[in-house]
Design a protein that fits this description.
It is built from 17 helices and 28 strands. The protein is α/β, with parallel strands linked by helices and 546 residues long. The protein folds into 3 domains: 3-241, ANL, N-terminal domain (Rossmann fold, 3-Layer(aba) Sandwich); 341-436, Luciferase, Domain 3 (Luciferase, domain 3); 438-545, GMP Synthetase, Chain A, domain 3 (2-Layer Sandwich).
Length: 546
């Protein structure tokens, strides 16, 4: 059944129970503001600290938006893009799109004006819903974007090139539209990270969304008593799919704006959150703050917090060891996934397997996995190869890109581009991205292994290892290292620390610099390669001329 059925069920069974809370710690006003009151406020002038809606209102808002779209000619198979920061309007709009049978197309809120235009044309979107923060970017190509498209603005003081969301939905029916949706209908288009150029459009059926929602609830045993703290952006499959566990359970969730460590702990404390999904940098910041005494656990109400889970990147075992020192009663889990597999969970560690920290886990609910060599033959257990996954969450295709689809999906298997190995117990370990493997002097070097080692250094906050051009070796390893605030560290210290590594794995160059990460916490290695690779080549050219 489509995920919209879960929303309608919750609206009937838990009509007046809180479904979503929005927290904005940057605002000083701490009044509780209902949705009805919020509609009367100039949203661009005053953003309340805390807002909430019930399951009943959530469903009504989704229905109003759906009926408005239908009245404007949007039909099954049309595409509606959403580009907004996390807010209380986001999910009702998303579900409103799904209720029409149209395809929801979330945009990365970091897209610049050219990327917005590119993705709108690639996905052939018919509607773009955008928030206040995106007026300037939308205005840049407003003439092209508005041709044949409906542009809907969420907020007050609607720009001249768009129509007002508030005005459009004001008189629309709150009754669910009579549109039959099946698992085989197209449901959503998500975009690849775009770290190697403009992103690809990833088409999923409703089956994928339902699979992900049911899998999330099962993996984390989410119940109606749980309260999920959602921090990452909702445009990404990770945040939204983790929230869908709450949708299936009919439980409350909190959308938190901001990821400062004390903000996270305050939200968990004030809202009595039980499940929190963190990215590695956020978990690291919390631990660092506890280590240096910036804040203390006894200042918060955290006894109800039962599960901390991490995704989006390999998790250093040393981080979890530190975490358990402060939170010994926490369950821990990690999920592996990609947008092509409708987000996290196709490989899943499991809360009962904390003794396998460092592994990404075993096949998730209804998933299969295998590891293959360059000839697409399965490798022996313990050997490194490309991880492939198969299950009901595999994408339909890269929209309008049959060549890339053919390269990625073969005989129903999704070729992830990630290098992995399986141990004797059947657990999978991520070795590195296929494209991130460094070939130095004919030797394959996997950066994640070096990064995990360097992170053990008490002075290191974050690290990224990349390959830089080298005349003799082809590539050499370079470690870009971000040092913890208030600490000093030298190259010699890092070199001495790395003496425990095999000689060929020791970084040949050490650079102290801030590590760039995208909105989902992934290290943006293409940016680092561009920044330091180009600098390295220029230096070599100068050296050759001297």
């Amino acid at each position: 059944m489509p995920v919209t059925d879960f929303l309608e069920r919750n609206a009937k069974l838990y009509t007046n129970e809180i479904a979503l809370v929005e927290l904005n710690p940057e605002e000083k006003d701490t009044r509780r503001v209902s949705w009805k009151e919020y509609d009367l406020i100039e949203t661009n002038v005053f953003a309340p600290y805390r807002r909430e809606i019930t399951w009943g209102v959530f469903d009504e808002k989704a229905n109003r938006f759906a009926n408005m779209l239908l009245s404007r000619g949007i039909k099954k198979g049309d595409k509606v893009a959403i580009i907004m920061y996390n807010c209380l309007e986001w999910l009702p709009i998303y579900f409103g799109v799904l209720k029409t049978g149209a395809i929801a197309v979330p945009f990365n809120f970091r897209y610049d004006a050219d990327e917005i235009l590119y993705c709108a044309e690639l996905a052939e979107v018919d509607v773009i819903v955008f928030g206040f923060e995106f007026i300037g970017r939308m205005e840049t190509h407003a003439e092209r974007l508005s041709k044949g498209r409906l542009l809907i603005y969420v907020g007050d003081n609607c720009p001249r090139f768009a129509e007002s969301y508030m005005e459009l939905v004001a008189d629309c029916s709150s009754v669910a539209p009579d549109i039959k949706i099946t698992d085989d209908d197209d449901g959503a288009i998500y975009f690849s990270s775009g770290t190697t150029g403009f992103p690809k459009a990833i088409l999923h059926k409703h089956r994928s969304l339902t699979q992900a929602a049911e899998m999330e609830q099962m993996h984390h045993k989410t119940t109606r008593e749980d309260n999920f703290l959602c921090i990452p952006p909702l445009y990404h499959t990770g945040a939204k799919i983790h929230w869908m566990g709450s949708l299936v359970a009919g439980s409350k969730a909190v959308l938190l704006k901001g990821a400062k460590p004390d903000t996270i702990l305050s939200a968990v404390s004030d809202e009595r959150c039980t499940i929190v999904w963190l990215l590695v940098p956020w978990a690291q910041d919390i631990l660092d703050g506890l280590d240096n005494g910036t804040f203390k656990l006894e200042d918060y109400h955290l006894s109800q917090w039962r599960l901390m889970h991490i995704g989006a990147q390999p998790v250093p075992p040393s981080l979890i060891k530190r975490w358990k020192n402060y939170f010994p009663n926490h369950d821990y889990d990690t999920n592996y996934g990609l947008s092509e597999s409708i987000g996290p969970g196709c490989v899943h560690l499991g809360m009962e397997n904390i003794h396998k920290v460092g592994a990404i886990g075993v096949p998730g609910y209804r998933w299969e996995c295998k590891i293959v060599d360059e000839n697409q033959q399965e490798v022996q257990q313990g050997s490194v190869g490309e991880l492939c996954v198969k299950g009901p969450g595999v994408m339909t295709c890269y929209y309008n890109n049959p060549e890339a689809t053919e390269e990625t999906i073969k005989d129903g298997w999704l070729y992830t581009g990630d290098m992995a190995m399986q141990d004797a117990d059947g657990f999978y370990y991520l070795v590195d991205r296929k494209k991130d493997v460094i070939v130095s002097g004919g030797e394959n070097i996997y950066p994640v292994q070096i990064e995990d080692f360097i992170r053990r250094n008490d002075k290191v906050k974050d690290v990224a290892v990349i390959g830089l051009p080298d005349r003799r070796l082809g590539e050499k390893t370079a470690a870009i290292i971000e040092i913890k605030d208030g600490m000093q560290c030298t190259k010699e210290e890092i070199e001495d620390f790395c003496m425990e590594l095999p000689r060929y794995k020791r970084p040949k160059e050490i650079i102290f610099e801030e590590i760039p990460r995208n909105a989902t916490g992934k290290i943006e290695k293409p940016k680092l390669r561009e920044q330091f690779g180009a600098t390295n080549l220029v230096a070599k050219e100068i050296e050759e001329k001297i």
